[in-house]
Amino acid sequence: xxxxxPVTADxxxxxxxxxxxxxxxxxxxxxxxxxxxxxxxxxFRLSLLIGQHxxxxxxxxxxxxxxxxxxxxxxDTVLAPxxxxxxxxxxxxxxxxxAFWPGPPDLIVExxxxxxxxxxxxEKAERWLAAGGKTVWDVDPANHCVTVxxxxxxxxxVKAEETLSGGNRLPGFxxxxxxxxxxxxxxxx
Length: 189
Hints:
The protein is an alpha+beta fold. The protein is 23% helix and 30% strand.
């Protein structure tokens, strides 16, 4: 039984920025290791593709890795996906304070690292959806696929030779999964 007082989102926000990177899960700090270069390149490539599509079609706002989303209170949970997107219709009329974004994004993209456990990835996707996220993409380079989790409980695995669709979140967005995961892929849509 832990007697440690839960950490709040405000306390996490006020931690020195030169300290370790953390996510906050039910009041407990979880250290985030720096990503490897392949992970970083893949996140950047996919961010460009999604960002260009969102900008071109004026679909909403995109957020990069390390952006914290406050998705639970008492105890607080702040998660930072690799890529996040909020639909235009779900954006508040005025911008939130300069702190963590209040609430989950509509589309959450998590790129697996080699050390990520499958059970932890599924648990995180479920946490995002339970908090109100609509779609989670679990990009799995090792298994050459993307698992799409939907808020309605539907889960689809899209293999390398198949096309990943933006569905209701990113209408018109389509790309072959193999193009995303290819080490020789270009950043062109």
